[in-house]
Amino acid sequence: EFVHAGAHIDLVVYRKKLGYCTRIPTIGVFAGISDDIADVIQNSYFNIDPGDILFLLTDGIIEAVNTAGNMLEYEGLMAIILANVAKSVNEICDAVVSETIKWSMPARLRDDVSIVVIKRKDLENS
């Protein structure tokens, strides 16, 4: 079970059993919006099954803009993920960052590009 709190862009989970990605919306309030947010923080929960991969990212990835003015968006990110799910988490991170940069070339990225990839091991098949 994965527990998270606070508002941010959606989390993305590759579901190994299903063979596709799902988006997990975040709810609550952004950190730093006021001095005391203790009364409005809510925990949210979802399960990560063996073989699933969780992606925590900044909006610089999904909001990367190409020369035609189109954003990468979640659909573009999920296409990159699906093309790379068989790789290690480090290789998946590298692929997402490099493909995001390629998407926005020759223009420069307008925002930070940060990603954390967490893969739940399948202990029976490792």
Q: What structural class is derived from the secondary structure elements? A: alpha+beta
Assembly category: single chain
Structural Rg: 16 Å
Largest β sheet strand count, sense and barrel closure = 4 strands, antiparallel
Distance between the termini: 20 Å
Please report the total strand number as a whole number. 6
Average pLDDT works out at 87
User: What order do the SSEs take from the amino end to the carboxyl end, as H and E?
Assistant: EEEEEHHHE
Strand portion, in percent?
Answer: 15-25%
In the sheet with the most strands, the strands line up as 3-2-5-6
Count of alpha/pi helices: 3
Helix content: 25-40%
**Stretches where pLDDT falls below 50 for ≥5 residues?**
none
Q: Name the shape in a single word.
A: flat
How would you describe the overall organization of this protein?
The chain has 126 residues and is of the alpha+beta class. 25% of the residues lie in helices and 22% in strands. It is built from three helices and six strands, in the order βββββαααβ. It has helices at residues 59-62, 73-84, 89-104, and strands at 2-5, 11-15, 20-24, 43-46, 53-57, 115-119. β2 and β3 (20-24) form a beta hairpin. α2 crosses α3. The protein starts with a strand and ends in a 7-residue tail after the last strand. 15% of the residues are buried.
